[in-house]
Amino acid sequence: MTDTATAPVYTGVDDLRRIARELLEAGDVRVIIGWEAARRGARPVFVSDPAETDKLIFDTRCVHNLVTYLNPRRDHVAELGKIALVVKGCDVKAVAGLLRESQLGRADVVLIGVRCGGVLEENELPAALALTPETVAPRCYGCDNREPTLTDHLVGEPQPEPPRPVMTIDERVAALDGQPLEERWAFWTEQFGKCVRCYACRQVCPLCICEQCIVEKTRPQWIESSAHPRGNLSWNVTRAIHLAGRCVDCGECERFCPVGIPLSLLNRKLQDIVRERYDYTVSDDPENAAPIGDYRLDDQQEFIK
Amino acid sequence: MSDRYFISDSDLRGLAADLLGAGTEVIAPVATDICQSPSAIAATACTLDHSLVDIDYRALTSADELDLDRGLPQLSLKGYFLPEHEALCSWKQKGTTIEVEEVPTEFAARVVLAAKPCDAAALEVVDKVMNWDYKDELWNGRREATTIVNLTCPMIDDSCFCTAVGTAPDDVKGADGLLTPVAGGYVYEPATDKGRALIEGNKARFSGDVEADTLGREADDERAASRRRVAANLEIDAESVRDWIDTHFEDPLLSQLAIRCNGCGACTSVCPTCHCFDIVDEQEGVGHGTRRRCWDTCQAPTFTLHASGHNPRDDQHVRYRQRINHKFAIYPLKFGEVLCTGCGRCTRVCHAGQDLVEILQAIDIAARRPGDADPAAAEPEEAAS
Q: What is the ipTM score, two decimals?
């Protein structure tokens, strides 16, 4: 049945191109960042010529969280001038994160929202595929942002809920949690053992915003840069914890990892802990301060002994 | 008579078993089933393709693990010669004296079976810089101790372009011999003394009667077909690409080509020729520690950050230009070789869509364009197209 399913047509691409063209022609923005179809599939594209806005696409291959290009560390993108960014509903959570942490002013960017019914796990495909339990990105399951907020323009028709994946991220986390401590330790030891310390996870993260990452501090050195078990454990755990209550679950860290470390499991587990302990869920509301940047008198603190 | 031998499938496996039995380390591509992985990505990919596996160069524990029909290992052979991290020396402080202990620079003999020709060729390219002003004893020690046997590559996919950068899917550059699949086994062609020593030490596994008009021709045809397949992916004039890059440092094309780059450095990790490293001192307790070298990446801002705080490459497109410049202009001008063997890993690993095939094509077109130095002269041609 799934073999004959056709890819959903995400409407609004014509509107997307028209809005992009008008924004560039009016000089409201200098560049549109969206997706294009290239030799190896969908990928980010930077359009600054109104005549080239027909390059823009939106289909199930548009996996990337383009908000990473708004990250203040991206000097070469900032130099291009004012940006209009194409965002899915989930991507808006990362915009909210940057706004919440004063890394971006709302007036600094024009947001063109696209109504999305889910994306594929894999963007490097010659054509868009149908979303099936086998092909859908597991993070799309239970999406609560199919109607993008915070946007200046919104295109497309409302889309149905994405299908349930073969195994959800929560189910994978639960499966791992069900293992005895020794097994979990062995699992993560093996996974972190693969790390080559390229820091792709950090570079692609829309919310890894530190001017100087702790792993680059050498006086004193907090985290060893060698890819030995000690250094790799310190790095991967520190990265994850720094994103606790901030991670928007876009999965880009896992997708970009050249050695396939399942970072989304770690990220999701930390989200669960933050929800349990602080009753906090990352959302697309920029006013909703995350526990890592917020102090309340009733914060749980029994761990301070 | 050419120097060609036949080795059957079972004898190749037997050869690996003999070597292992004699205590020799044997490194070869090993496939690991990742269908059971809790990784969302891995497991989802697995449900799409039930044969999906991780392929890595590993030290074999048994000859049964030898699996020669698989694709390109995730990481190149580089790590076996320049590990992700390695100790250079360790120190101990005793009172006012410091004892420094050097690491050994001699290594036990080992054999790589079924290396990808692009990965072996990369070692010979990197040999140049490792023996330029300073002779890198650790690199050279491992190179000398290792016998590398290539396996003619059928081509992985449309991101392969070894033939465009001076090597080939059936090259023995950087290796000691070549296996080419034929009916029932392989034709083995030794290329160096180490490659011939492998036969001398394991005579029973090889037979010398490869007839030029049967097995020999089959191997030749296989090799030629493989070269043709790769050549169809990309054709560039590496010399004019080199000269164009060398003379167009500020050309906007180079920054345009880098625009989507996240600076993640995954490309340099998986690259068989990227060899830059950082040296760090790791204190491991009071008065003792280890000096290590670790892979570094030119895509990170800290790569060129000066102690003053100044950074000559403080923008990502400048860092990306450096990667292209180093590979296709600086290294060829200094050492006469392109610092790339066309394995395509950087393209496959980049989920932002930085595509080296496309980038080299774009530079090649710019380099071939007559009157490129004079933009006005190039315009009529553009208008006509």
A: 0.88
The C-alpha atoms of residue A75 and residue A65 are separated, in whole angstroms, by 18
Among partner residues B48, B84, B300, which is closest to A196 by beta-carbon distance? Answer: B84
Put simply, the answer to whether A198 touches B318 (Cβ < 8 Å) is no
Q: What order of strands is seen across the sheet that includes strand A109-114?
A: A41-47, A31-38, A83-87, A109-114, A153-155
Burial B275-296 (b: 16+ CB within 10 A, else e): bebbebebeeeeeebbebbbbb
Average pLDDT value for chain B = 89
Residue indicated by tokens 């919104």? A154
Mean pLDDT score, B285-308: 93
Chains A & B: contacts with CB separation below 8 Å:
161
Supply the pTM of this predicted model: 0.90
Q: Does B55 touch chain A (CB under 8 A)?
A: no
Instruction: Report, as ranges of residue numbers, the positions in chain A whose pLDDT lies below 50.
Output: 1-3
pLDDT at residue B368, as a whole number: 87
Phi-psi region of A291 (alpha: psi -120 to 50; beta: other; left: phi over 0): alpha
Q: Which residue has the tokens 């590559």?
A: B153
Q: How far is CA B362 from CA A266, B236, B237, B300, B322, in A?
A: 40, 10, 12, 25, 17
What is residue A113's DSSP assignment?
Answer: E
Q: What are phi and psi of B294, to 5 degrees?
A: -130, 150
Query: With the CA atoms of B39, B40, B44 and B45 taken in that order, what torsion angle do they form, in degrees rounded to the nearest 10?
Result: -50
Q: Which of residues 69-108 of B touch A (CB under 8 A)?
A: 74-75, 84-85
Q: Which of residues 218-257 of B touch A (CB under 8 A)?
A: 255
CA distance A297 to chain B (A): 38
Residues of B in contact with A227 (CB under 8 A): 84-85, 294-295
pLDDT in the model for residue A6: 80
- Consecutive H or E run containing A254: helix A252-256
d(CA B73, CA A236): 24
Q: Cβ of B351 and A123 within 8 Å?
A: yes
- Contact list, B266 vs chain A (CB under 8 Å): 198, 200, 256-258
Which residues, in sequence order, are CB contacts of B101 under 8 Å at separation 6+?
B89, B90, B91, B92
Q: How far is A299 from chain B (nearest CA, A)?
A: 33
